[in-house]
């Protein structure tokens, strides 16, 4: 039986277990009938399920899935149970939205054994019209589920594999979702006047390159004032039914320890003192380091969308050019490049799993840097 239980690694790097049990041959088609189960978090759980199915097979009580016709909605119910065990809650919640709002909306009532390439292509064309930047993600999810049906021998081929993907031609626009050094200084000056907490939050983003979800999940026990470092190992995420929870970050490389400048650390010290006084008035003991750096008056994490409100208030106060909360991460990258940091150094500090991500998103630099490059070239040619 040990040979029947197989361990495998998910795309996110987690260990899972599964098994196949031979049942026999389908008399109508001649196809092999198997019980194929996977997604178990432990070997013990896989073994328990293995024995349960093995007994059913030996007693002639197992009814193969192939004896029933499945619609895409039926298949989704089967597939989602397994998929849920292999990903984070936030990823599963996103997948549910995509299936309910797009995939099942177009294909849910089709029987999978009769689903054609033409029907898949018609759905893809509609997805492209609605969401030209995101529609490929819908294709990947639909194809992944249909591959699952192939593995279960419910269908012979995955028709989604043969669709033609419409090409989205993006209009070239100048990337400007970041601040220059002067713009950032002006923004932070305005933030101080609006609310000190807002100032601390956006300064931390701009001087660390943290994602807003990472900053909102940050606790004081991850801030080392002695060595001027911050440990980033959590992030605020949205789960099922819009539930807010704290989980591990996006990827393994997102877990990192970064150094911060002394002035930003002093700003955090000042904020901690102010926060302790404010929260004490509300009946919360914030002397413990096991508290959030940015907590609501109910001592809970902020909704990630809340930072948009903070940002809007600051921009309105100073009549400033608006960038998104994520734009402060872009700002940090741009200023790192300006200061002479290498692509590899920026990748490590931002927690990107691939340097390609760093290159794709942050190859831009500020206009000042571009001008300096031209000036240096001119000096070289004239020397």
Automatic annotation (TrEMBL):
SUPFAM superfamilies attached to this UniProt entry: DNA breaking-rejoining enzymes (SSF56349)
Domain of life: Bacteria
Keywords recorded for this protein, A-Z: DNA integration, DNA recombination, DNA-binding
Residue ranges annotated for the Tyr recombinase domain, each copy included: 174-375
Swiss-Prot/TrEMBL GO biological process terms: DNA integration; DNA recombination
GO molecular function: DNA binding
PANTHER family: PHAGE INTEGRASE-RELATED (PTHR30349), PROPHAGE INTEGRASE INTD-RELATED (PTHR30349:SF64)
Similarity comment text for this entry: Belongs to the 'phage' integrase family.
Record protein name field: Site-specific recombinase XerD
Organism, as annotated: Lactobacillus bombicola
């Amino acid at each position: 039986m040990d040979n029947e239980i197989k361990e495998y690694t998910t795309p996110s790097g987690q260990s899972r277990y599964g098994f196949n049990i031979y049942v026999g041959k389908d008399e109508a088609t001649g196809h092999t009938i198997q019980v194929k189960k996977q997604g178990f978090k432990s070997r013990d759980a896989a073994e328990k399920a293995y024995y349960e199915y093995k007994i059913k097979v030996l007693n002639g009580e197992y009814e193969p899935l192939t004896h029933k016709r499945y619609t895409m909605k039926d298949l989704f119910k089967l597939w989602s149970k397994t998929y849920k065990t292999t990903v984070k809650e936030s990823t599963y919640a996103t997948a549910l939205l995509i299936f309910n709002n797009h995939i099942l909306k177009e294909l849910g009532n089709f029987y999978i054994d009769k689903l054609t390439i033409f029907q898949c292509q018609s759905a893809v064309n509609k997805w492209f019209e609605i969401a030209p930047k995101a529609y490929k993600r819908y294709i990947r999810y639909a194809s992944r589920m249909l591959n699952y049906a192939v593995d279960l021998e419910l269908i012979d081929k995955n028709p989604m594999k043969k669709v033609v993907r419409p090409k989205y031609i993006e209009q070239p626009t100048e990337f400007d979702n970041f601040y220059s050094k002067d713009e950032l200084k002006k923004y932070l000056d305005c933030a101080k006047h609006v609310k000190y907490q807002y100032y601390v939050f956006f300064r931390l983003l701009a001087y660390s390159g943290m994602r807003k979800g990472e900053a909102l999940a940050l606790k004081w026990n991850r801030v080392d004032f002695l060595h001027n470092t911050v440990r980033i190992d959590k992030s605020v995420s949205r789960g099922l039914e819009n539930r807010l929870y704290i989980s591990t970050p996006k990827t393994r490389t997102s877990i990192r320890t970064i150094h911060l400048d002394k002035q930003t650390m002093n700003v955090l010290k000042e904020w901690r003192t102010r926060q302790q006084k404010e929260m004490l008035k509300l009946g919360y003991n914030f002397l413990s380091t096991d508290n959030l750096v940015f907590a609501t008056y109910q001592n809970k994490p902020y909704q990630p969308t809340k930072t948009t409100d903070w940002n809007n208030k600051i921009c309105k106060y100073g009549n400033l050019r608006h960038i998104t909360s994520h734009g402060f991460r872009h700002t940090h990258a741009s200023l790192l490049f300006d200061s002479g940091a290498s692509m590899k150094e920026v990748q490590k500090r931002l927690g990107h799993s691939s340097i390609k991500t760093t290159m794709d998103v942050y190859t831009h630099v500020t206009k000042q840097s571009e001008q300096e490059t031209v000036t240096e070239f001119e000096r070289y040619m004239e020397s």
